[in-house]
Amino acid sequence: MEPVFFFIIFAIIVxxxxxxxxxxxxxxxKRKLKKSELRKIADFKDGELARIVGTVEFVDxxxxxxxxxxxxxxxxxxxxxxxxxxxxSKWKTIIEEEISNKFLIREETSYAFINDDRIKSYIVxxxxxSTGFFTDAPQNLENYLNSKGVKSESSxxxxxxxxxxxxxxxxxxxxxxxxxxxxxxxxSVNLPEKYGRILTITSSTKDAVYLSDDPDTTVKNAAxxxxxxxxxxxxxxxxxxx
Length: 242
Prior knowledge:
It is a single chain. The protein is an alpha+beta fold. It contains four helices and 14 strands. The strands form three sheets. The protein has a five-stranded mixed β-barrel with strand order 1-6-7-12-11. A five-stranded mixed sheet has the order 5-4-10-9-14, with no helix packed on it. The chain has a two-stranded antiparallel ribbon with strand order 2-3. A hairpin with a 2-residue loop joins β4 and β5. The radius of gyration is 21 Å and the shape is elongated.
């Protein structure tokens, strides 16, 4: 075949791959947060649209994440099954779930609260598991699958090839949030009065609330951060289990 034909095919493949990365949920949320203007919570003005960075503080009793059984205020679970497709195979999502309870974002002595259900989030998935032909699902994974009406075995009794990923927001974890701010008394949004006036974060007519714990979004000024101030990404990141 003509070299130009191979060049066209290569260009199409590269374009498709780059588009998939650039327009992925993760990329869109990170790009929105990184490009948005940063404000200290205490300096936020009513009606302003900007990003804040602070640490998670529980208000409700903590949730327990279903896969790793960790205390958190927010968890994301993504489970995929490897399925045959012609002469190849692909990963198919069978469960995707995000659950949250009330939590505050603290910066020094100021607090913010997400008071909106229209949220676009990317939570770093720092716990990974896999099960397959020779690897049974441990009981906690089996229980979670069963609660969603899914079985780890096929109708023939063989283990399905599954991979599981989980991300959470823990107490004290750093997060970035973008949205429209408005100052309110804590009691008016059903929070304990001891918090006084808090900044409520809501969506705008144009944008949802954006939320992430990815270190790329929580660094306030990468150019001025010293090595001692850079986020520690070794504590919860990159663990893999079978």
